[in-house]
Amino acid sequence: MTKILRASLLTVLLLVAWQIAFSQDLTDRIKSLPGIVSVEKMDPNPFFNEAMIIMVKQPIDHLHPELGTFSQRVILSSIGFEHPVVFITEGYGGDYGATTKYLNELCPLLDANQLFVEHRFFGKSVPDSIDWKFLTVENAAADHHHIVELFKPLFGKKWISTGISKGGETVLYHRALYPKDVEISVPYVAPLNFSTEETRHDNFIRHKAGKVSERKKVAHCQLELLKRKKTLLPLFKQLCTEKKYVFRADTSQIYDYCVLEFAFSFWQWGRSVEEIPQSTASDQEFFKYMVKVCPPDYFDIESGKGTFPFFVQALKQLGYYGYNPKPFKGVMELADTKSYIPRLFMPTGGEFTYDPAMSLLVKNYLKKDAEKILLIYGGSDPWTASAASTRGNHKILKIVQPYGSHRTRIGTLPPSQKRKAMDTLEKWMN
Fold first, then answer.
1. What angle do CA 379, 380, 381 make, to 5 degrees?
2. How far is CA 111 from CA 78, 82, 420, in A?
């Protein structure tokens, strides 16, 4: 064996030995942390060295720990202790975060570890018995604060919190309540609402999303769906019967709600007006397109079980958007959609009182004290209507991608905006 070959073999063996030692060391360190319920190895994304699913004990109510605990799912994907941490505060269930293919875009951009946290009372992060009064912004932020305190001694480099949509909103609440937990935050398409039925989104859809000609085409499609309701409703009912959908309103009203939701969904997900059927298209073509853009399972009781906790939060603290049937007066059965969330998404007796205090706290925090927060939005996404405002605070930055959707990310930005985002992150990281 040549000296070069022996040296190469020795290098490989040392690398393997180091990886094994690192793996054992990380696993042992995680297991030794207080309140760790379980650690399960999983195949990492190729960007990382290893990954594991960790269940962390959390109080059901942080103000009253004597009331019991639940286990919160955390997925750690690591490239090393000496790297920064991208801290992902998911707003819903976290099944996708426990897959090999998941890689947050900030990790390769910042050469960082990935720490993903499922939201309390979603997915596998639920207590044996749920009392909705404990599903609060304050408790969720305290969950995230506890996890930062738990893992920061292991990963001492910069921490960057991030999340998408409700997850981005969760970033803002956590940052406002615990401003020192992380150094940088990158919330994507994060709304900040102040009522349960905001009117800003409808105004945005009718006057700001896309181009004028595109908005007209979307509205015309909605009108066409209502004019054809007599022939399309039997197809709609047949689909709902086949799928065994069950609603809290009659199917005819659900049809109208789908027409109202159609515009929001169209712009949220960045669809093209070129897909919209022509006026001469058949009923089947219009029906097929309608359920493609806004399938009725959004209003189905069984299909909505996974997101039911969100509507609890919307009614209590997060707020949501309202519908406006007035532009369709005379052709739409629905005349009043007020209080549609409790009517369509809540069981009998599921009543909550809305309190905007936490949203107002974030609003004031962003205006005065926030720093190193990069807000990213899509210019045609209806959620941008309730986007967080920088309000003259030059220590934070908001970037709105022209005609961007709810899928807007750093990677989708045009070159000039992408450079601005990366230059800002680089400055903050250094």
1. 100
2. 10, 10, 19
Q: Which residue has the tokens 């959620």?
A: 383
Contact 370, 175 (CB under 8 A): yes
Q: Which residue has the tokens 């070129």?
A: 274
DSSP secondary structure code for residue 113 in this structure:
E
User: Distance between CA 125 and CA 97 in Å, rounded?
Assistant: 13
Token pair recorded at residue 399: 């970037």
Contact 382, 267 (CB under 8 A): yes
61 and 167 share one domain: yes
CA–CA gap between residue 332 and residue 69 (Å, rounded): 48
Which pLDDT tens digit goes with each residue over 113-146? 999 999 999 999 999 999 999 999 999 999 999 9
Whether residues 322 and 185 share a domain: the answer is no
Q: Are residues 184 and 210 in the same domain?
A: no
Average pLDDT over residues 12-39: 73
> Alpha-carbon distance 172 to 189, whole Å?
11
Question: How many CB atoms are closer than 10 A to CB 27?
Answer: 14
- Between CA 262 and CA 256 the distance in angstroms is 10
* Structural domain count of the chain: 2
